[in-house]
Amino acid sequence: MAAEGEYESILCVKPDVNVYRIPPRASNRAYRAADWKLDAPDWSGRMKVTAKGKVAYIKLEDKVSGELFAQAPVNEYPGVAMETVSDSSRYFVLRIQDDNGRSAFIGLGFGDRGDSFDFNVALQDHFKWVKQESEISKSNQLGDSGPKLDLGFKEGQTITLNIGQSWLVWPRWSYILCVTAPSASDKEYYTF
Predict the structure, then answer these.
(1) How many domains does the chain have?
(2) β-strands 174-180, 158-165: how paired?
(3) What tens digit of pLDDT does each residue of 75-90 get?
């Protein structure tokens, strides 16, 4: 998953989340939070979203001791590891995994829509960064295959810049900078 020596960064921390046991998916339709027992969560605690390399981790921890309850590695977003429910913006389905690779699906709920928004944005920002990093590495591997821009002066080309007027000297002086590209036989010169 993540290479050795990579650091772990914290993307988002929410102090109050609820976990629900969800019924198995009967068909191909989306999960619905209304099918869960929302008034009786199976666990409550703190959620921390971290990133190590290209993988984001949703960690559910005890509020007091910080002991890890469950962890969901997210390799892509949106994806199988984290799904939204069809009837609310505050509830999600997570695929948690243990160290042996066994997985289970649980429901995750926030008491506030702002917290669920922050959670979504943290994951979106991380995977936007992952996409940009992969595009940069691809372009570095391919090299610059596009045309090179020649922004230099052509032989005999002249540019005139009006710098403005000076308020310090009376009478007011106007300064004009004239730059002419030298030809192969001419010397460089600047006219003020």
Answers:
(1) 2
(2) antiparallel
(3) 988 888 888 888 888 9
